[in-house]
Amino acid sequence: MRVHERLEELGVKLPKAAAPVASYQPVVVDGHIAYVSGQLPFVDGNLVTGKLGKDVSIERGHEAARACGLMILAQLEAAGLLERVAQFVKLGGFVASVPEFTDQPKVINGASDLMYEVFGDVGKHARSAVGVPVLPLDAAVEVDAIVALKA
Question: Which residues form the Endoribonuclease L-PSP/chorismate mutase-like domain (predicted)?
Answer without folding.
Answer: 6-141
